Structures are given as structure tokens and as C-alpha cells.
Hints:
Strand order of the largest sheet: 1-2
Number of strands: 4
Distance between the termini: 48 Å
Radius of gyration: 20 Å
Largest sheet: 2 strands, antiparallel
Number of helices: 9
Amino acid sequence: MLTLGVQRVKSVSHYKYLEIVLDIELSDNTYIQRQLQYQYYAVNKLRASFSRYWNAVKNVVFRSFCTSMYASQLWCDFRTAYIHRLRAAYNFSCRALYNLPWWASVSSHQVQSNIPIFEALLRKNTYLVFELCKKSKNLWLRAVMQSDCSYSCLFFEQYNRILLCDWVPGRYSVSLRMRAAAGHNALVFHLAVARAGL
């Protein structure tokens, strides 16, 4: 029990701050679960309103409501199973909105419709935030990003994990080879990513 002076401080198991759910374990599993529920909620609303519209309209609606994963670039501590469920919900949303048959490739349809696939969406969000941190005018943040500690902190490890798709089955050996080749040199790391086409 935490006390402040003579008063007891109330404690909660989780707290929502700026729509981000913080729990006592400081993991992002709870917030990812909320995003998962929102995906199913959004696609049900969209199917009820836009199921008979042209695909061009569906493209705009899907990008507006289903690709906006708020604060996904800050997810650092999560179980892989939660991300797999969210990816399944994302693909299901696309399949349900466009009435795709079960045998059709969702990724192929997303590429043809200029909709980002789930892996590309997470990588883009993470990359943009990392670049914004490097270009920040904040003296403290700029000092951290220009020092060696930026390559050993939890955020940069998560940046590698998302950018190299460590959580995707079958990509683990590729990311290990690229990490070994890149080391702590950011320039070499970016060149390795560009050459691999990731």
C-alpha cells in the first residue's frame, strides 16, 4: 500500500491516458486488445453502410477507419499472439468489406487497392516516429538520438523488431542475419534494409 504523508494513494490495475491503456506490467497487450475490438467494430459499421458502394469509395473508407492504429509505433512490450490476432482482424476487415471469397489473397487485393498490408503499416508508423525523433528540435531528445544509447534502448530494439518483422513466422532467420551485419551502425542498418527490399 502506497501512502503519501498520512493519506493512502489509490491504486488501479490499469489506467487510460490519452486513449492509451497503461497497466501495472507496463505491457501493450491491453491496448492491442482494445485495438482488436475496434477493428471488428469498425468493419461491422462499414459493412452496414458501404457494402454496396464502389471499391474506390471502400478504399477511402478502409484507409480512414481501419488503418489508423493510434500509438502503434510506441508498442514495445507485447506478446506475439496479440499482434497475430490484430493482423488477422485487419485482414478479416478487408475481406469482409470487399466481400472477398475465402480463397482470395487479401494481401494481393490490398496491394492492388493501394491499401497498406498490416506489416507495412506497422513498419511505416514506427519508421516515421523514429525519423521525427532524430529531427526533433528538443535538445534532450536530439542528444539521446545522436548518442550510442539510442541503439541499445528498448525503443530502438522495438524499431528493429517491427522494421524487420521479427514477429512474422518465417522471417526470424532473415532479421538475425541483418542484425548481425548491421551491428550498431545506423547507416549500414538502413542500407541492409533497403537492399533486402523490406
